[in-house]
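go over my protein:
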Amino acid sequence: MSELTLTIIKLGFLAVLWLFVLSTVSVIRSDLFGSRVSGTSRNQRQPKPAKPSRPPRRKRGEPSVAVVVQGTSSGLQVPLGDSPLAIGRGSECEIQIEDEYVSTRHAVLRPQGTTWYVEDLGSTNGTFVGESRIHGPTAVGSGVPVRIGKTIIELYK
C-alpha cells in the first residue's frame, strides 16, 4: 500500500473515532441534563395560560389521582384524565421526578377503558409494579405501588 492510502485510512479512522466520542458525550449529556427548553426574553409578553380544565368525572371506584408517596418528589399529586401521563426526569413529562435512577422518559401511565396501565419505555433500571419488574403494559389498580428508581407512585380514588 502506498503512503497516501495509509494516511487516508488513518485520518478516516480518527474521524470515525471522534464522531463516536462526540455522539457518546451528547447522549450522556442529554440523559443527565434533559433536553433544552428555549426561554423567552423578559421583554416579550407571554400569553396568559388557558384556564385549567377539570379532569373528566370518572366512575365510582376508578382511580382519579396519581400520588408520589415516596421519593424526592413525595407528595406530588397529578389528576388522572383521559390522556396518558409520561413519567421521568424530562421537562416534557407530566409526572416529573428528580431521581438519579429515573430516565428522561422512563414510563407512561395509560388509561384503557376503566383500567390504568403502566408501561416501561426502555429505561435502564426498569419499572416495578408491586415487587415484579414489568416487561410490557401492566394493569395498575388503586393503592398498588409502582416503583420507578427510588420513587413510588400509587393511584388513588
In short: The first strand starts at residue 65 and ends at 70. The mean pLDDT is 84. The first helix runs from residue 3 to 33.
